[in-house]
Amino acid sequence: MLIPHLHYMDNCKDAISLYERAFQTKAETIITSKQYGSTELDAEDRIAHAVMYIHGQKVFLNDRFGKKDRSTDVAMHMIVMFSSTDELLSAYEVLKADSTIVDPMEELPYSKIAVQFIDKFGVQWGFMTEEGVV
After folding, report:
1. Residue 46: what pLDDT?
2. What architecture is the 77-129 domain classified under in CATH?
């Protein structure tokens, strides 16, 4: 089993909340640093481990712990295949605020509509539809 694991810069709670709205899902597990018993606690109670399903795919999420170099520059690109254009546009409407467009929304030979962007948490997303798939 391959599980994408997304790391955040102390804003994992915000990311979970936004993704729950965008993908109409709920995190099934959330363990905070206080629950985990982390010795690295600061004033914030950060996310030590969370699990949610995005379009049927299990995804792990957490705030960065450990090394002081907390770069989020990782080779991770989440692709979500929507069953309809309406579903894609609904999720994109929630996530587009403060995002950076990589490839603007367009029709592709293998997708009726597609867009690539980096959300405000630094995660790169590729949205496309099964409509129009060759």
Report:
1. 86
2. 2-Layer Sandwich (3.30)
